[in-house]
Amino acid sequence: MKIIVTSIFVEDQERALEFYSETLGFVKKHDVPSGEYRWITLVSPDEQDGTELLLEPNVHPAAKEYQEKLFAEGIPVTMFGVPDIDAEYKRLMDKGVKFTMEPTKMSEVKIAVFDDTCGNLIQIIQQ
């Protein structure tokens, strides 16, 4: 068994697609109409057959509450690995990304947290 798709709730699918592809650099794999919303997935440019990230609309009240509470508590909804967190931090800062935690050494890893502009905090990690 393996993970093929994981989802993240977003306030606006189009804004999320722009942020995750143009700012973060993920590659759009699927963009299919699904009722009044879309099935939008992205993949890492380095693993285009790898795990897909689904940009899930947060229209259900439970999803919206979950997303809002995690954000209010400062809890990232997911984690992305990077080879050089200081370089990635600078690259994203240059693109206007707002960080809630700058790169910080934590035991054997270094982490940082940013706002994805779509209702989520995302953690990046260098192992």
UniProtKB/TrEMBL annotation:
Pfam families listed in its UniProt record: Glyoxalase (PF00903)
UniProt cross-references to PROSITE patterns, sorted A to Z: VOC (PS51819)
Matching InterPro entries: Glyas_Bleomycin-R_OHBP_Dase, Glyas_Fos-R_dOase_dom, VOC_core
Domain VOC: 1-127
Alphabetized SUPFAM superfamilies for the sequence: Glyoxalase/Bleomycin resistance protein/Dihydroxybiphenyl dioxygenase (SSF54593)
The name this protein goes by in its record: Glyoxalase
